[in-house]
Amino acid sequence: MTSPAIQWYPGHIAKAERALLEQLKRVDVVLEVRDARIPLTTCHPQAVQWIGNKEKVLVLNRVDMIPLVAQQKWTSWFQQQGEQPYFTNAQHGKGIASVSQAAQAAGEKMNQRRRDRGMLPRPVRAVVIGFPNVGKSALINRLLNKRVVESARRPGVTRQLRWIRISEQLDLLDAPGVLPSLLKDQEAALKLAICDDIGEAAYDNQRVAAALIDLLKHLQAKNPEAVPGNPLLDRYSLDPAHLTGESYLAALADSRHQGDIERTARQMLNDFRKGILGAIALEMPL
After folding, report:
1. By C-alpha distance, which of 42, 60, 49 is closest to 20?
2. pLDDT in the model for residue 214
């Protein structure tokens, strides 16, 4: 199946990135939010450069959508890299207290340095960064314990930077999702599309659904812990074992939707994104 390369870089992202880089000069702590299903793909290639020597809290959101063993393996992997990941389900508030404590602790390090230089402590300034639709706004609403920013399961909802007072000790900057201006790795771009972490206008649903099928088959063969059971067979009563992603999608369309492949592709992507196919990790530690 041939279709144009997946690229999505709307104007508001370029504008927001410039504003974010300006505001980062005033920030003490960075909360970097990634999608727990694809934690490597949702690491912005410039994040390390942007964060510099600031304190960082790594948040892996949507933990409810991956198997427990994947969470455990990612925890060990990140700890080996010298990072402590905090897993959250921002929609339902899971793991939020730990993130708040980690942000406060990181901020206290900053204030201790101020005291050491004879300066008075001040409220900690933190920023939430990450790809579109990884759950940044939902995380902020949970940290504040009320809805202060619009949150939806689609990319591009937050379009401008906004400071929010979380507590007397913490000010938080809500920033729009930032993407690389050029998605060079098209395998990674397909994962962003599968997880709905990129605008729908950027991709072809049939191509992405076929890629999901092929990726699930690959993971089942190479890393079965990432994909418990056989979700496609269980959900659609059609075994993908001897079919390519494209041929499976066509066969499923014939059996379910009178050959309507587009409708079938949309349903499959929706089933994955809503967790109907089960807890699935599209990436595991290298």
Report:
1. 49
2. 97
